[in-house]
Amino acid sequence: MLIHQPNEPHALATSDAVAPSVIIIGFTCDSPELYPFSCQPVTLSSDQIKALSRILQEGMSIFEPPYNIPNTAYMPKRTHYPFGADQLIKIGLESLLISLVRDIKSDGNSPVNTTPTGIQAVHQYISKNYHTRITLDSLCFLFGINKTTLCRSFKESYGTTILDYINALRIQEATVLLHKSNSSITEISEILGFSSVHYFCRLFKQHTHCSPTAYAKASRVGE
Known about the structure:
single chain; about 50% helix
């Protein structure tokens, strides 16, 4: 982690062989205690990474996607979001920064929290955000869990894989949209977060045994 000073020009360069996960959070703080973090990067502990993931979860519960566009001047808020989420972002960020300052003052010997995150929280997150791009890597980071444990625990708890669960939710909503909305097949595919309309059509047919076009026509017969 690196904290930039106000109006400090900066850029990122990464290895071509490794896809990075970059998180950018903008905030203001007048404390001189943060100055050392603008001089060189620091490595977060597992406890601090979990604290950062909780901040991101609160942020995603408030703001509408997409989240991967740098230099966004304005991020619209969702119409409804959990009570107090704004304040929890502020509190979480303050707590994280305080822990980092304490680490410097105590030579970095801070306790590590190894309490696992419940798989139910992952399930709830997917159920609310299945129309956005969700990857195993992002879930592992958000909930502080490794990929093997995540996949095994989810399958044991819900009897299906994460990808199959996401796709089932998307296809279920697609049937509703095809019946009630005037959106095109391509528009519905984009609304539900599919990588392409061709993949959407193929998956839809696997689940319903007919194409989206045929389903839309059949569901509107007699109206």
